[in-house]
Specification:
Layout lengths: L1 H26 L3 H6 L16 E5 L4 E3 L5 E3 L2 E4 L4 E6 L2 E2 L8 E3 L5 E3 L13 E9 L3 E12 L5 E3 L4 E4 L4 E3 L2 E2 L7 E5 L2 E2 L6 E3 L5 E3 L8 E7 L6 E2 L3 E6 L6 E7 L4 E4 L4 E3 L2 E5 L3 E6 L2 E2 L8 E3 L5 E3 L8 E8 L4 E18 L4 E4 L4 E3 L2 E5 L3 E6 L2 E2 L6 E4 L3 E4 L8 E8 L4 E11 L34 E8 L4 E6 L11 E8 L6 E4 L7 E4 L7 E10 L2 E5 L3 E4 L14 E6 L2 E5 L12 E8 L6 E5 L3 E4 L7 E10 L2 E2 L6 E4 L10 E7 L5 E6 L3 H4 L5 E8 L2 E11 L4 E4 L7 E10 L2 E5 L3 E4 L14 E8 L4 E8 L8 E8 L5 E6 L4 E4 L7 E9 L8 E6 L15 E7 L5 E6 L14 E8 L8 E5 L3 E4 L7 E10 ...
Parallel strand pairs: 2-10, 12-21, 23-31, 32-40
Antiparallel strand pairs: 1-4, 3-8, 5-6, 5-9, 7-8, 9-10, 11-14, 13-18, 15-16, 15-19, 17-18, 19-20, 19-21, 22-25, 24-29, 26-27, 26-30, 28-29, 30-31, 31-34, 33-38, 35-36, 35-39, 37-38, 39-40, 41-42, 42-45, 43-44, 43-46, 46-47, 46-48, 49-50, 50-53, 51-52, 51-54, 54-55, 54-56, 57-58, 58-61, 59-60, ...
């Protein structure tokens, strides 16, 4: 292509041009600025100037004949001289090897010996001149058509005819249109000389007017087109003598419709014959044409009309009227005038920077409307994402790059011809300021590039560039100020963006300094764009931000808008609409829907169309309509086009003027009044009125008077006295005269009117009151012989003399304005003349009260939907049935959204206005049900509220701690406290649990505090086994499904000092256990597991004051013990020797414990009283799926766990509900204490809480002292036990302790900090009780004081304040029996004696209790 070749040559000559420009700049500083109208540039700035490059001569359409030579002229101006090339039909001609076509020195194309045949037409076609300057670019000329006349062919030939002398004759000879100019006539085979009487029409037809005998002969037409002449048939013309009789009037040649270009000539043929000889006259649009005084209108021989130098005003319908006195005939033809394209605004030269957007403007006119195409450096510009045709003719170039430089030409073309105009684009370096003020060709997005920069520090890159909103066709970017300018009030920003993989970058600028967001519009769906932001200050542009890659959202593949929609009127009742296929059809277009609507109405009609054009008929005349087109594919309707408005053509009025009235002025004049025809029937602009009047006695003698403009009355003078006249009026438009009114009669006076006395009273007076006005109408006095010059109207409240208004005598009504509503007015009317005022006529009226009609309400919005986006945001969407189908808001309506929550009940509504069909409600409360409704308002009209939509915001973590935290001591249990609290005021969701933290050191790290989980929404919890007379600090934290909230403030509570109620008789026993019977040799290393479920320790027990009740309990207990002993003897015999060895091994290990006494010193363990209190109530009855931390046993230190013999594993597994979490945790804590390690704390909160009750089941409470000295195997192997504490698998089963265990559902993860093991089968029991957590500890064997324990979580090595242990009372007999029945442990017969001794000790304890 020429552009490519020019670009390559530009590289080789750029250095030379640069030097030339620099020399010119030194020699003529400021010259460029002067040419462009801008001030001179600063020193060192290199500004290239625009180079004149244009055509001096362009080729024109040419007609040639075969064998002749043709020159197509072309000459272009530029410095240096351009290179000229030629294109034929869009392809460059190779003139080097062409011997018939050659390039002349000035650039013209010379074609010798034109070749043309039926099958070979190498020279005919469209030619275009192409001028190229290596360093500048390329321009192309207009396109010229070379037509070669073909071989002569006669469409019609002369036929023999005859004509009366003095009449007209016509001989036809029609040939190819391009050969008409080569036609000549011969008479008797001699050339016929043409004159004013004998003419040849443009079609080749011969017309002879006023035939004489000399015109007789043989006629033929000859076509001479370069080759041998071709002759038509000969036809004889006979001249007949005048028969002196009439003959019928007829047309020999009628006018036919013509199309001519402005400046050409038009001949409308019209030849008639008949006797008498007819005369021809012409009319245009019912107006007679004056051919005698006009220089452009000439009547040719025979009556044809020749119009020279045609203008647009000559277009219209022409009537040829032939009249011979006896009859009149008429023929008509339409003259259509076309205009070649002309530029109203030519493209202008543009300076720009890279990445800017520019627009070349091009406004053209012509008839038919020209089409516009753009050429860059000689190559057609194909519309794309970056080259767009806007506003029908303008070229928009987006995201300039260096290669966009060159010459751009706007080429306008229609059926008549074509023309071109061009402009140059120069892209400057970014450090060179644009030398002109912002021209209109620069878009608003790039004008801030125009300010020259000064020296100074530049801003750094903007920070945190993010896409805050991503849609299908737009992206909203936000950022923070650069680090170099934290305030950034005076900074502007440019956002550069491009499609991924495209080098062309576009720019969008912020609207105001300090703005840190911009919305990029007109993007493509599902497309990746790269964005970067650059800040500018007064010194220039700073650093660019890092590229940001964002992909737009996809959208349904619907068709885009149909381009180039056009509508034009084809008649007064029809309009033709055309369009093209959408550029983004997104599949096959199935059909189109054309919508149209009359302007001023809201009723839109539509029609389905399968093609790209449609003619709508049956429209109103001279009425404006709007049209739009929507394309449909398989997905549905696409994007609608913009509305196109067009008015139907005008026509003659279809109704007569209204309210025709006549008023006799005097004996010689009458005034006629009328009103225009109804607006719907005017069918165009009323240009005047035609008044026809006649005497009633002579109806054939009609006089016409034309009234131009909008005049609605006319004085007809010069009439006869005492004569009756008939009047009628018709309205005129440019199309002709409409129907006239009926004839209306009036009679002039016999004599002139009398003015020697005042007029008489008006014959009638009528008043019509309105709210603030009264319409007064009247009729003149009955005696019309007296002159009336006018009327005086007086009016006032209660009196007619307050104000007086005088009106003309022609007036028959008047509206009195600015009155008060609901007021009584008196009105008087008097006629007056030069003598004075006549007798008044009175009338009264009461104005109407002021009432404002209520506007009809609008339809409320429908389909209101609430979409929850977050914990505080809900999007409300709706539809408006009062809008068109496309739901496009084009008026000033707005919508009001209101919302409220029903909690509390008296909450007021909040409102917000929106101008779109959606609204984003923010600032809502989390986990709150809101109701929404919408109403629409337009002007003074509003709708009712729509149906409500509901939405509940998402939950959020609690934002306030539990409140009203109180700690009280439990009555009768000083080591047990009860913590009470209230839910957080800002729960932000359903509370699913609480965590109680407590410690004796308020300043300790939070992970060192003891944790007590509480399941569900309970508001109280018991904590047991606290140290007496010790200050504790408590904090509570609430939890919902989103997480944990803040902790409450620490609440201090000091446990009471020990009193007598706390020292039970069993407290003195050295071997007493804290929970049932404990092994005497376990020592202080043992600590039972904690449980958040119900425990009998510290549980409130109703005191049994009745001794009788105690006796019953003891009796039942004795019976139960006997049964248990029998069962134990039976089970002991089944003990295997293997179990004996294991017990012996464990006994040897137990010998290393730090107990002071031996087995014989061991006292029987305490039995529990009220063992049924041990049953645990369900942890959480709520079906809430949100898991909660449950009460978890937490060992206080590394010495709190004592090993237990393996021999008890089987019985332990069968007795408890197999929850291994306690054991694994205890093992972990024990081993971690031994190894000096901090165990890993695992606190899962999101598992399903248990749905069943749990209970503590005694494991070794009924064992004799010797057999109860068991241990875990992990005590013998600390390393192995450490690993098993984290696995909680089959290895963990061997590390279980034969200790009182809280039986819970094993799936709950909060019962230990290790992974729970698979539970063995065992039915749980249910017994609801108040939840509490025992913090168990053991007493030393031979000490009666409480053992001091330390509590720690995660820091087992740290010391803690002493925590006394509550020693429970002995159990009831029934519970003891139950525990013995549950036990399946075996013992040898030699151990039975020890067990019996143990039971005897128990009996002694029971007796002691009874006596107490």
């Amino acid at each position: 292509m020429a552009a490519a070749r020019g670009a390559r040559r530009l590289l080789s000559t750029s250095s030379l041009w640069l030097c030339c420009l620099l020399l010119l700049g030194r020699r003529e500083p400021g010259a460029a600025a002067a040419r462009s109208g801008s001030p001179p540039q600063s020193p060192g700035a290199s500004i290239r100037t625009f180079t004149p490059f244009y055509f001096l001569v362009e080729p024109v359409d040419t007609l040639s004949v075969r064998g002749s030579s043709v020159i197509l002229n072309c000459s272009a101006y530029s410095e240096p001289s351009p290179k000229i090339e030629w294109k034929k039909d869009g392809t460059f001609l190779n003139l080097v090897s062409d011997d018939r076509r050659q390039l002349l020195p000035d650039g013209s194309l010379f074609i010798s010996n034109v070749v043309h045949s039926k099958h070979n037409k190498p020279d005919e076609g469209y030619y275009q001149c192409v001028a190229t300057v290596e360093s500048l670019g390329t321009i192309v000329s207009r396109t010229a058509k070379l037509t070669v006349a073909g071989l002569p062919r006669f469409a019609s030939q002369p036929e023999p005819s005859s004509a009366y002398a003095g009449n007209n004759a016509v001989l036809n000879c029609e040939v190819n249109a391009d050969l008409v100019s080569f036609v000549r006539w011969e008479q008797n085979r001699q050339p016929l000389l043409l004159d004013d009487r004998v003419i040849k029409l443009p079609s080749g037809t011969l017309v002879i007017s006023n035939v004489t005998e000399g015109d007789e002969g043989l006629y033929r037409c000859v076509v001479e087109s370069g080759g041998p002449p071709k002759y038509s048939d000969e036809a004889e013309l006979k001249v007949l003598p005048d028969p002196e009789i009439t003959s019928n009037l007829m047309f020999l040649k009628q006018p036919s419709s013509l199309v001519r270009v402005i400046g050409q000539s038009a001949v409308l043929p019209c030849v008639a014959s008949g006797l008498p000889t007819p005369t021809i006259r012409w009319m245009k649009n019912e107006e007679a044409l004056d051919t005698e005084s006009s220089e452009r209108l000439v009547l040719l021989a025979g009556g044809s009309l020749d119009i020279s130098d045609v203008t647009e005003d000559d277009a219209g319908t022409y009537f040829c009227i032939a009249d011979n006195g006896n009859e009149t005939i008429e023929a008509q033809a339409e003259l259509t005038v076309q205009a070649q394209p002309e530029f109203l605004k030519q493209p202008a030269n543009i300076y720009a920077h890279e990445s800017m957007d520019i627009v070349f403007e091009c406004e053209v006119t012509g008839k038919p409307t020209p089409t516009v195409k753009w050429v860059k450096n000689g190559d057609m510009v194909i519309p794309s994402d970056y080259f767009k045709i806007v506003k029908e003719h303008n070229l928009q170039v987006l995201g300039l790059v260096k290669s966009d430089e060159g010459f751009y030409q706007c080429i306008a073309e229609n059926d008549v011809g074509n023309t071109q105009a061009g402009a140059q684009l120069i892209i400057l370096e970014h450090d060179v300021a644009i030398p002109t003020l912002p021209p209109t060709s620069l878009t608003s997005a790039t004008t801030d590039h125009l300010a020259p920069a000064t020296t100074g520090p530049l801003p750094s890159a903007p920070r945190d560039v993010v896409a805050s909103l991503v849609s299908t066709r737009f992206i909203k970017l936000t950022w923070r100020t650069p680090a170099s300018d934290p305030h950034g009030d005076n900074l502007t920003y440019s956002v550069f963006y491009t499609k991924e993989g495209i080098a062309r970058e576009r720019v969008e600028n912020t609207s105001h300094p300090g703005d840190m967001q911009v919305t990029i519009q007109n993007l493509m769906p599902a497309t990746v764009y790269i964005f970067r932001v650059m800040a500018q200050n007064k010194h220039g542009s700073g650093e660019s931000s890092a590229p940001l890659r964002v992909e737009t959202q996809p959208e349904v593949q619907l068709p885009g808008p149909a381009p180039n929609i056009r509508a034009y009127a084809s008649s007064p009742t029809s309009i033709i609409v055309t369009w093209e296929t959408p550029l983004s059809g997104n599949g096959e277009i199935q059909n189109y829907k054309l919508y149209y609507m009359e302007k001023g109405t809201d009723k839109e009609q539509d029609v389905d169309v399968a093609s790209h054009s449609y003619t709508i008929n049956g429209l109103k005349k001279y009425t404006e309509y709007s049209f739009r087109v929507v394309a449909y594919n398989k997905h549905g309707p696409g994007v609608s086009t913009q509305d196109v408005a067009v008015r139907t053509l005008s026509d003659v009025p279809s109704a007569a003027p209204q309210n025709l009235s006549v008023e006799v002025r005097n004996s010689k004049s009458i005034v006629i009044h009328w009103q225009p025809p109804p607006l719907a029937t005017q069918n165009g602009q009323i240009t005047g009125y035609k008044i026809r009047y006649r005497k009633a006695s002579r109806k054939s003698d009609v006089t016409e008077t034309l009234v131009t403009g909008t005049q609605l009355s006319q004085l007809i003078e010069g009439l006869d006295r005492g004569t009756e006249y008939n009047f009628r009026v018709a309205a005129l438009t440019v199309n002709g005269t409409g129907p006239a009114t009926d004839w209306l009669s009036a009679e002039t006076f016999e004599s002139d009117l009398d003015e020697t006395r005042v007029p008489e009273v008006p014959s009638s007076l009528h008043v019509r009151p309105l709210v603030t006005s009264i319409v007064v109408s009247w009729t003149p006095p009955e005696n019309q012989n007296i002159v009336v010059r006018g009327y005086a109207i007086g009016y006032g409240i209660g009196s007619p003399h307050a104000q007086t208004i005088k009106v003309d005598y022609k007036q028959r009504y008047y509206t009195i304005e600015n009155l008060d509503p609901s007021s009584h007015y008196v009105i008087t009317l008097k006629a007056f003349n030069n003598v004075g005022e006549g007798i008044p006529l009175y009338e009264s009226a009461v104005t109407r009260p002021h009432t404002v009609p209520d506007p009809t309400p609008m339809m409320p919005p429908v389909g209101v939907q609430a979409s929850i986006l977050s914990h505080d945001t809900i999007r409300i969407t709706w539809a408006d049935n009062s809008l068109p189908k496309h739901q496009k808001i084009t008026d000033s309506r707005y919508y009001t959204v209101r919302w409220k929550t029903n909690i509390p009940a008296n909450t007021k509504y909040k409102n917000a206005n929106a101008t779109t069909l959606n609204y984003l409600v923010t600032g809502l409360k989390p986990n709150t049900l809101y109701e929404f409704s919408v109403m629409v308002t337009k002007g003074r009209r509003s709708s009712t509220w729509s149906m409500t939509a509901h939405g509940t915001t998402f939950e959020l973590v609690p934002t306030s701690p539990p409140k009203d935290v109180t700690v009280v001591s439990k009555e009768g249990k000083p080591r047990t406290i009860i913590v009470n609290w209230q839910p957080p005021s800002e729960a932000n969701g359903k509370i699913t649990g609480y965590i109680i933290y407590y410690s004796t050191d308020v300043n300790a790290e939070i992970h060192d505090w003891v944790i007590e989980p509480v399941v569900g929404n309970r508001l109280t919890h018991q904590i047991q086994e606290l140290t007496l007379d010790t200050p504790y600090y408590f904090k509570i934290q609430a939890r919902n499904s989103k997480g944990m909230g803040p902790m409450s403030e620490a609440v201090q509570f000091r446990t009471p000092k020990a009193d007598s109620s706390d020292k039970m008789p069993n407290d003195q026993a050295s071997g007493s256990a804290g929970k049932g019977s404990r092994l005497p040799d376990l020592g202080s290393d043992y600590k039972p597991p904690m449980s958040g479920s119900n425990s009998p320790h510290g549980s409130p027990t109703s005191p049994l004051d009745s001794n009788m009740l105690l006796v019953i309990i003891v009796s039942v207990g004795v019976i139960t013990i006997v049964v248990v002993v029998i069962i134990a003897v039976f089970c002991t015999r089944r003990t295997t020797s293997h179990q004996k060895k294991k017990r012996a091994a464990c006994k040897s290990v137990n010998g290393s414990h730090k107990y002071k006494g031996n087995s014989k010193d061991v006292k029987p363990p305490d039995l529990w009283i009220h063992h049924e209190r041990l049953e645990l109530k369900p942890i959480d009855k709520s079906p809430d799926p949100n898991p909660i931390m449950t009460d978890t046993p937490i060992p206080r230190n590394s010495q709190d766990i004592t090993p237990v013999d393996n021999s008890m594993d089987s019985s332990i597994h069968q007795r408890r509900n197999s929850y291994r979490g306690h054991e694994s945790e205890d093992s972990m804590s024990t081993l971690a204490g031994r190894r000096g390690m901090r165990p890993k704390m695992m606190m899962p909160f999101d598992s399903q809480p248990p749905q069943q009750s749990v209970r503590n089941t005694p494991s070794t409470d009924t064992m004799p002292a010797s057999s109860s000295q068991t241990c875990c195997t992990d005590h013998q192997d600390p390393e192995g036990a450490t690993s098993s504490s984290y696995l909680a698998s089959s290895q963990e089963e061997d590390s279980g302790q034969s200790l009182p265990t809280a039986h819970v559902r094993p799936s709950h993860p909060l019962k230990s900090f290790a992974v729970p093991a698979i539970p063995p089968p065992g039915p749980p029991t249910y017994d609801p009780a108040l939840p509490s957590t025992p913090l168990l500890s053991q007493q030393a064997l031979n000490h009666h004081i409480h053992a001091v324990k330390t509590a720690s979580i995660g820091t087992l090595g740290r010391s803690r304040p002493p925590m006394p242990v509550v020693v429970p009372s002995a159990p009831e007999v029934q519970e003891t029996t139950r525990m013995l029945e549950d036990s399946e442990s075996s013992s040898e017969p030699d151990e039975l004696t020890k067990e019996m001794a143990h039971l005897e000790g128990l009996m002694k304890d029971l007796n002691a209790i009874t006596t107490a």
